[in-house]
Amino acid sequence: MENSSLTVSEPFRSGSRLQLLFKPEAEADGTDPFLLKESEAANDRSPGWQKGFAPLTVSVIRAHTPFTCAVVLEVEIVHSSPKMSLPDRFILKLNDRRFGYRHSFVRKPSEWNSDREAPFVDAVRMCLDPRRSTAIPHYFDDFPGPHEAVEWRTLDRQPWMAELYTWKLKYQQYLAEILAYRCLQTLQGASIPRLHGTVRLPILCGSDFLHPAVDFVNGFAVSLIEGTPMNEVQVGRDLTKARAEEVSQRVLDLVRTIQRHRCLHNDIRLPNIILRNWPRQVDPVLIDFGAADIEQPHEPVMVYPGCGSDEVRETRSMLADPEYGGWHAPSPFSQRVNEKHAAYMGFFRVNDRIESVPEHIRDLQYERIPDTDGPDAKKKVLQWRVREGVKTRET
Questions:
Q1: Cα separations (Å) of 39 from 31, 42, 196, 243, 285?
Q2: Is 192 in contact with 283 (CB distance < 8 Å)?
Q3: What is the residue extent of each domain of the chain?
Q4: Predicted confidence (pLDDT) at residue 309 exceeds the cutoff of 80
Q5: 174-215 confidence digits (pLDDT tens)
Q6: Where would you find the membrane-spanning parts of this chain (predicted)?
Q7: Strand intervals (E) in the chain
Q8: What distance in Å separates the CA atoms of residue 211 and residue 200, rounded to the nearest whole number?
Q9: Which of the residues 3, 157, 266, 287 has the least number of beta carbons within 10 Å of its own beta carbon?
Q10: Which among 233, 334, 238, 335 has a CA at the least distance from the CA of 275?
Q11: What is the rounded distance in angstroms from the CA atom of residue 144 to the CA atom of residue 127?
Q12: What is the Cα–Cα distance from 1 to 354, expressed in whole angstroms?
């Protein structure tokens, strides 16, 4: 559920300045991205979460509203260390539990306000077990149980629990996106944005470290893609059918490439595909890997509800759907499949299906079989065949 009143929050309005901590992305050195993710997650949960980060001040140029799973800002540098390899302008993505989609397992999603923060901080402080000086609660299940310092059952269904649950989901999205960028490092700067580094936005200053949910916001910096989302380009008005087909084929090639890296994006939609330097070029760039999943060795990849493992097929169906602009003309069935369908369903249905294809597409994909006209011929013989050299599909 989207909270419209939080589409532009005061800290992120245009012209606002943000005091961040920035850690540049290291050069590829062969380190396993999964091990790197685990070590960084452990660092997030410790008082040394600022290690390796340097101060960075940015000014908000534009807030990409409404905020959904994350706060997405176009920013420019006001002050930074000379060693930071950052462009003057870039995209800052913050997985801030306070803004955007807010999840809840105890009540309907509710808006955040400053009055909620103090009780949440107090609840986290109360749940810290004084007997474990180095153990910092991480996820929901890490807090003390019924027989420890705090009686768990007495805290059931409290608002602060929903706040922690929201943070947990956004933190998981942050880790998923960082991992996806690192596993797709060879595509950065071309087919996907370049990951410049990770950031921390302190939100609880002047106190001892409690928990990453209350002390800081996780985020990262990626390159700004100058272009237009595909959902803002209309086929037939802004570009021809032929050029739209060219774009769709490049999108499908990109999804195939990502799949070869054993990655599922899990949220391929037209708004998440940017046409770089449109209308001069038609280079698609895929963004927003917050729902991505990477297959680990000896471990099957997780498929999110509503998403399939064959994203190429799903993307092809989306691009061909008239509701999404009709970017793609699906490849025809092979002639062998057409003949098989005709034998099973009847010649009329196969002929009718081919004739329902838009004429400008049908003329490119099919040709009429000679001597197949006449009374009731449509019910008795196959009247069309696939042109030689046309790419076909079997399913």
A1: 11, 5, 19, 46, 30
A2: no
A3: 4-102+164-222, 227-324, 335-386
A4: no
A5: 999 999 999 999 999 999 999 999 999 998 876 678 888 889
A6: none
A7: 17-24, 54-63, 71-79, 89-94, 195-202, 216-222, 227-229, 263-264, 273-276, 283-286, 293-294, 366-368, 384-386
A8: 13
A9: 157
A10: 233
A11: 7
A12: 42
**Residue with structure tokens 């107090």?**
122
Collapse the DSSP code of 382 into the 3-class scheme (helix H, G, I; strand E, B; otherwise coil) and give the result: coil
Distance CA 197, CA 29 (A): 15
Tokens of 64: 């990409």
Cis preceding-peptide flag for 279 (omega within 30 of 0): yes
- Total residue length of the chain: 395
Q: Could you tell me if 236 and 296 are in contact, meaning their C-beta atoms sit under 8 angstroms apart?
A: no
Paired tokens of 32: 């396993």
* Residue carrying structure tokens 């009847």: 346
Identify which of 211, 215, 37 has the alpha carbon closest to the alpha carbon of residue 138. 211
Residue 19 tokens, joined: 């005091």
**CATH number of the 227-324 domain:** 1.10.510.10
Q: What is the pTM of this model?
A: 0.79
Distance of alpha carbon 196 from its chain centroid, rounded? 17
Nearest CA to 266 among 196, 180, 202? 180
